[in-house]
Amino acid sequence: MMQFSEIQASWPLLETLQLLPFAAALVLWHVRGKPAAVIGLVAATLEMLLAVQLYQQFDLSSDSMQFANQANILGLSYHVAVDGISILFVLLTSLLSLLGVLFIIFRQLHRTGVLAIMALIQALLMSQFVTVDLLWFVLMSIVEMIALGYLLYRWATFIDAKPMVVLYSQFMTVSVLLMLIGTFMLGWNYSGHHQGNWSFDLYELAATPIEPAITTFTFFALFYGLAIRIPLFPLHGWLPITIQQGNLAVAPMFLLGLKVGVFGLLRFVFPIMPESVIEWRELVIVFAVIGIFYAALLAMRQGNLRRLMAYAVISHTGILMIGLFTLTEEGFAGGIMLAINFGLAISGLMVMIGLVWQRTKTASIQRLGGIFQYMPIVSLAFLISGLAVAGMPATPGFDAVHLLLEAAITEFGSLVTIAAALGNVVAAGFLLFAFQKAFLAEPSGNTSQWDTRPTQFTERAMAIIMIVVILAMGFFSELWLSLFDHSLNHLSAIYQQLLGNQGGH
């Protein structure tokens, strides 16, 4: 049973992180053009500075949840606090949001309401990453999914976006329903142990035994609800068409760069339902291994850069899940670092593809070629992002994969570990192939309509931001690993004790 302690906030920093983008969204809904660009950029920059301040004030020596605050809002329990895992996701959210604002300004979309929707999504994401109340997490997820669906539909790159939006909505509706069912089952179970009083608070749910009759059903409801969002094979059907037809870079960054589903597992499912996680982890590993090779093979057959990225996500999700379900400190650390690394890298890839599309009006690998001579810094950012996905040295993926494979071979033996390692090698292969064909090879189609002007300031800024952040995280990965050291000590100790008890019997 996992125990929690917390340190109260001296000032409402977590509330400010949530309210600032929400206030910006309200203003931006009524403002267009250059004023909107300025407001969006200022708000995103301030949010980034607040996230950095949160990181600087976080006490690495404490094993308590920090910056805690509680209240009752419209009958809902509001309870926020963060550990090192939360802070990494908060930092990533603020960075990708700033990158998204720059991309929107470059695309001249600040004349529309897209900046307002982006700011709203950022506020909802911040709420999910700082809450320790499961119901609040699910409710914020619902609103976020609706906002993302509107963003995908309103600013799609295909004329007829309805099939894509319908498929996205179907999958996300199932995800929401499953999460709601699992959440209310846990609340109902809690009430049975506490004289009819309901609670969805992480601390209280983790300390409450779950009745055997509902354990498996509750676990699968929460796990599959989150697995759709991750997305884990075979629950990935919404992703390829969404990435291909949806908004070029902003929506994919929020959908894929921020592994909200992974965070939900770490924050709620693993601490609350450890026995179920242990019971069903072998099934999860089977799906993860199948997904690695299934998606990698499909990725190699794609002629569209955006669909290739979608299958790269699915393949690497399998590797990430293997790390998490080793249930060891090294596996958790490797999985979290891989999620952050992958969030940065896939966002970098999608933004660079978006910049290429803006100049060429195509994402077809066969129709591209020779991009490096027109956009060298963008091409370099694409290459470094691709190498980060593959876990190359000097990227955060290198230490992540090392920790993950070390944990996997200890817990699962050679076959699963080899599968994860081969998946990584295949990922490197198809990403390097895509880079060679799209950026280095001679173009095979008509390039007369391409915009071949020198790289603009905004393009250079986005590319340099991605390069610097990825390399900085790679070279100084110990700083990030130390953030969640205490959190993982407690979580892994629970699982090692339970696994040890099983082995003893």
Gyration radius, in Å: 22 Å
Beta content: under 5%
Structural class: mainly alpha
Query: What is the total tally of β strands?
Result: 3
Chain-wise SSE layout:
Layout: E1 6-8, H1 13-28, H2 34-57, E2 65-73, E3 76-82, H3 84-106, H4 114-130, H5 134-154, H6 162-193, H7 202-206, H8 212-229, H9 239-245, H10 250-257, H11 260-272, H12 274-300, H13 305-324, H14 329-360, H15 371-374, H16 376-389, H17 396-412, H18 414-440, H19 457-475, H20 477-483, H21 485-504
Parallel strand pairs: 1-2
Antiparallel strand pairs: 2-3
Helix pairs in contact: 1-2, 1-4, 2-3, 3-4, 3-10, 3-14, 3-19, 4-5, 5-6, 6-8, 6-9, 8-11, 9-13, 10-14, 12-13, 12-18, 13-14, 13-17, 13-18, 14-16, 14-17, 14-19, 16-18, 16-19, 17-18, 17-19, 19-20
Please give a handful of descriptors for the protein shown.
505 residues, mainly alpha
Task: Note down, in words, how this protein is organized.
A hairpin with a 2-residue loop joins strand 2 (65-73) and strand 3 (76-82). Helix 12 packs parallel to helix 18 (414-440), helix 13 (305-324) packs antiparallel against helix 14 and helix 13 (305-324) crosses helix 17. Strands 1-2-3 form a 3-stranded mixed β-sheet. It has 21 helices and 3 strands. The relative contact order is 0.10. The two termini are 19 Å apart. The protein is globular, with a radius of gyration of 22 Å. It has one domain (6-499). With 505 residues, the protein is mostly helical.
